[in-house]
Amino acid sequence: MQNTNRNLHYALAAIVFIVAMATYLMTVQPTVPFWDCGEFTAAAVQQQVPHPPGAPLFLMIGKVFHLLPFGDPGWRINLVSVISSAVTILLLYLITVKVIRNFFQEDLSEVGNALLVYGSAAVAALTYTFTDTFWFNAVESEVYAASSLFVALITWIMMVWNEKADEVGHERWLLLIAYLIGVSIGVHLLSVLTVFSLTLLVYLRRYKYSTKGLIWTMLLGIGIFVVVYNLVILKLPALFAGNLPFKNAAGEFLVEDNFLFTLIGIGLIAGCAYLVYYGRKTNHGVIALTSSAILLLMIGYSSYAHILIRANSNPPMNENKPDDLDKLVSYLGREQYGEAPNWPRRYQTEDRFTRNYTKYGKWERPPLKVVEFKDGGRGQRPDYGAWKTNVGAELGYLWGYQIDHMYLRYFLWNFMGRQSDIQDSEAYSPLTSAKAVEALNHKSGYADKFPVNLFAIPLILGLIGMYFHFMRDRKMAWVYLVLFAMTGVLAAIQQNQQNPQPRERDYFYVSSFMVFAMWVGLGVFAILERFKKNPALVGGGLAVAILIAPFNMMRQEWGIHSRAGNYLAFDYAYNILQSVEPNAIVFTNGDNDTFPVWYLQDVAGVRRDVRIVNLSLGQTLWYVEQLKNRSPFGVQKVPLSFTDEQLSVSEDNVKALTYDFGPAQPVSISVSPKILAQYTNDQNIINSGVMQFTYHGAKRGQGQNGDVEYFNGVQHKLVLDILKQTKFERPVYFSTSVGDPAWADEYIGLDNFLRLEGMTFRVCPAPQRSAIGEGVNDKVMYKSLMESRDGDDYSTGQAYGLKFRNLNNPAVYYDDVNRGYVLNYRNIFYKYTTYLLYELRDSSRAAKVLARMNEKLSLDQFPIGMNFELQLGQLFESCGDQKNAEVMAQRALKSAQQIIGNPSLRNAEPQMNENVIPERIAADASAMLGKWTEAINYYKVFASGGEADVYVNYYIDEIEIMKKERRRDYVGALAIAESLQPKYPLTTPDKSTQQVAGELQRKIMELRNRLGAHPDPVITMTP
Q1: What was the pLDDT predicted at 327?
Q2: Element (H or E) spanning 372, and its range?
Q3: pLDDT recorded at residue 400
Q4: d(CA 829, CA 818)
Q5: Separation CA 346–CA 340 (nearest Å)
Q6: DSSP-based three-state secondary structure for 434
Q7: Are 589 and 719 in contact (CB under 8 A)?
Q8: How many Å separate Cα 666 from the centre of its chain?
Q9: In what order do the strands lie in the sheet with 698-702?
Q10: What are phi and psi of 667, to 5 degrees?
Q11: 3-state secondary structure 812-830
Q12: What is the 3-state secondary structure (H, E, C) of 297-333?
């Protein structure tokens, strides 16, 4: 193959690499991100064991980057993805050149030809550089960027082999691919899917095509995949563990711990080695090649020895503790996550899933079958084989959710555009209505960045390129179509994802988008090929293509992919840890309030005295066992009464700690009177020496006797046992991100015993109710919020003072997930303000706290609903800060007017419910602003909506009181209010009038309080 004009080739290769590297370096997160990144980073730095099935090679590579002598440790591990992604872009350029040269053999010494080939490849590479999904993965420390690099590297080597397939020794390229597939398993399994394309390429390149041959080739591809995934990855470790790698109905190996099977496993490897020798000696090339490939794959796969070695060293993070081959088999098989059948598609039974099933057709729960364990115990498992499913509904779910919503939507995000960054938002097309986009981005501080409108140009170019590829080089086009499908829609089908998902899952399909980006380059080639004799036209055409595709993608998407200045994950974890006293136990619940915390403890060394108890993992026995028996970094063990046997046997074993069902139960915990005296002044409670509350798990329904029945999971029992064993001699907290105590079952009925301290609720042995519901530690809250630590420095020891970096910086982008955590921050500011105002009656400090909230948490970046805006205005007004009250009232009025003018936005308004009426908000906000006529008019509009006249009459009458209050004529205001009592008597039988009379009496008492004539009652407010 001719390869002239090398300088142009190398120059464009260098340019696409530099553009990608510069882009990702400029937009990479400066420290640890949310989701699995904190876990992987902590695992890499300390060489620990993350969640199944692990990523040992990624962790080893990450450790090398951690050794860099500069930069934040989280940023250094993020660099693994930055560099992997930039190299992937370079490889895609090289792949596209080879794909074009496979059918375009003309002399590249001609400038037009060289520009056409290399320029089209550059368009493909630059397009992929700025695709939504690939860019997202490129700037965080997840495994998908490194996995994409392996897919690109294997694909490039496939093309190299394609060029050299007629040369002596071409097999070494295939053997290199086998080794790389084995090695890549230590990052992610995605590369295994390339075996289908590789098998097809070898057949089409080396053998004469026939239908029969094609069928045998595809069967061979499936066979190779089974050998790689099912035998080498899953069953070979089981053999080494001494197990016959087949299971009974109870999910147990048919034969376990038998040395004969260990010998068989060793024998298989020895047999492969012998076949290599035999094949070479007897010139049986296929035997030698096949056995060599299997051996090399296993050598690459041996990176999983890292998991065994590190699990036995017992690092702080040792998930599932796979310290022997039996446990490693379970770890590799992801058994912790349960069984997921390929059919039916709708197999989950939890309410959060089943409520989404019925839209596709009738759904019934699966039948159960009784299974018997080897130890004689019995249990129940779903009987999928006997499940009479609604085939049409299953196929509807497969297409409507799993293919359309969970793959095609992502595909179009990347090549057509997207309407918003909120979860489940649809792709954007030129046909998308402006109202749909407005509704999705209503009250987003980043609405100006949406929609991402690519004008469908990358999609059109890619479809042209795919069609052109089949017209010019059908065999190679099939190879890439198989790669596109296997890493895309077929992967989505295989995963059998359930609705809802905790986050978007587009990162699974990033290699599928790489193939389509290559076709974008081929689409440009197809359009410009006719001008190849005119270098100027080709060059101009390439410039136009770059402007309308990759450049437009960069321009549209830079703002939503740059994570520069985003410290939220670090700060959120820091704030949880610095809200608690030394040697505390803190309950967390999800990935994002746990993994960044692990990062801070393991990598940054922050608050290693604190023991984190993740309640999601608290459902697993291995995790509870580690809480009981391990003390990472010397932290105190978590005291538990569960026996080691309960925690070490299989979860199916009758002896295992497990869930149960039952009614709520009274609980008494012995607590020292000295400790009780720290939480209450009630001598009866102090002298009793006990804490008493009603324990329950998650509400399930009614039991047989009519009582409310609860599901009491292992996590619920874990919380209760910790309280019983610590007896409050050790501080115990819930992170506020666990949920609202009013509804979250994780609190096991402790909602009356919680005290707000920073970003946590402290569990107290005595009731702590206050004006906001939960108790409040005034001293801790003031230090946490008002003495916040705003710089980049941080304390590794206990030090109050939360961090809110760049949450008032409009240059920093926060996506939908990030913005949700800012609402948690606002909630604690709001709770503390209302506590100061209505419990301590300290309006001066309340006003300062409220003002600081708006100072630290930008209302423009993180807008709130109109109801909350009005409440904040009323709070400012109650604090005596009329200036800020009017600012918030103006916001509320503007928001209400927007909803009144466009009712379709109502469902998109944050914190909206059926009781929030825009006209009422507008009226109240207008009154707060002194716009009395407007207020009266809005009240009348409000009344026309069906509200009783008594309410409207009162609101209009109240305006006269407000006028006096605005002039600080509280005597006059009180006189008017008292004069209205006969009009709204408390003794009336009419309930509406009674409610209005109650409001009037509260207003009278408030005015008397201002005049020092009457105490103010306690008022409860919630945002």
Answers
A1: 87
A2: strand 368-372
A3: 95
A4: 18
A5: 10
A6: helix
A7: no
A8: 37
A9: 660-662, 708-712, 698-702
A10: -130, 135
A11: CCCCHHHHHHHHHHHHHHH
A12: HHHHHHHHHHHHHHHHHCCCCECCCCCCHHHHHHHHC
Total Cβ atoms within 10 A of residue 105: 10
Structure tokens at 324: 């022997």
**What is the distance between the terminal CA atoms of the chain, rounded to a whole angstrom?**
70
The length of the chain, given as a count of residues: 1023
Mean pLDDT, rounded, for 186-210:
91
Cβ(117)–Cβ(1) below 8 Å: no
Is-contact 750 763, C-beta < 8 A?
A: yes
* pLDDT tens digits, 314-328: 999 999 999 988 889
Cβ neighbours of residue 880 closer than 8 Å, sequence gap 6 or more: 843, 844, 847
Tokens 């058994």 correspond to: 335
Residue 739 above 60 pLDDT? yes
Asked whether 235 and 221 are in contact (CB, 8 A), the reply is no
**How distant, in Å, are the alpha carbons of 92, 113, 160, 852 from that of 106?**
21, 7, 19, 68
H-type alpha helices, 727-864 = 778-786, 816-838, 843-856
At 1, the pLDDT band (50, 70, 90 cuts) reads: very low
Side-chain half-sphere CA neighbours of 381 within 13 A: 17
Q: How confident is the model at residue 1022 (pLDDT cuts 50, 70, 90)?
A: very low
Answer whether 734's CB lies under 8 Å from 754's CB: yes
Query: pLDDT, tens digit, for every residue of 154-183?
Result: 999 999 999 999 888 899 999 999 999 999
Q: Per DSSP, what are the bridge partners of residue 699?
A: 710
Give 138's contacts (C-beta < 8 A, 6+ positions apart).
20, 24, 28, 81, 82, 84, 85, 86, 145
Task: Quickly tell me which residue has 């090339």 as its tokens.
Answer: 285
The DSSP string of 189-252 is: GGGGGHHHHHHHHHHHHHS---HHHHHHHHHHHHHHHIIIIIIIIIIHHHHHTT-EEEE-TTS-
Supply the pLDDT for residue 4: 64
Give the burial string for 827-866 (b: 16+ CB within 10 Å, else e).
bbbbbbbbbbbbbeebbebbbbbbbbbbebbbbebbbbbb
Cβ-Cβ contacts under 8 Å for 715 (sequence gap 6 or more) = 615, 616, 618, 619, 746
Dihedral sign, Cα of residue 116, residue 119, residue 121, residue 127:
negative
Neighbours of 109 (CB within 10 A): 10
Structure confidence at residue 368 (pLDDT): 86
pLDDT of residue 1016: 42
Residue 294 has phi, psi (to 5 degrees) of -65, -40
β-partners of residue 253 are 247
Structural contact between residues 451 and 431, judged by C-beta atoms closer than 8 angstroms = no
Q: Which helix (DSSP H) or strand (DSSP E) does residue 694 occupy?
A: strand 690-695
Phi, psi of 774 (to 5 degrees): -75, 160
pLDDT-derived band of residue 957, with 50, 70 and 90 as boundaries?
A: confident
pTM over 0.85? The answer is yes
- pLDDT tens digits, residue range 377-426? 777 788 888 888 889 999 999 999 999 999 999 999 999 999 999 999 99
The answer to whether the CB of 986 falls within 8 A of the CB of 997 is yes
Share the mean pLDDT of the chain: 91
CB of 432 closer than 8 Å to CB of 451:
yes
Report the SS3 class of residue 804. Answer: coil
Q: Which strand (E) or helix (H) includes residue 107? A: none
Return the number of other C-beta atoms located less than 10 Å from residue 702's C-beta: 11
- Are residues 538 and 531 in contact, defined by beta-carbon separation less than 8 angstroms? yes
Q: For 910-929, what is the HEC assignment?
A: CCCCCCCCHHHHHHHHHHHC
Dihedral sign for Cα 557, 558, 560, 563, please: positive
Question: Could you count the other beta carbons within 10 Å of the beta carbon of residue 966?
Answer: 16
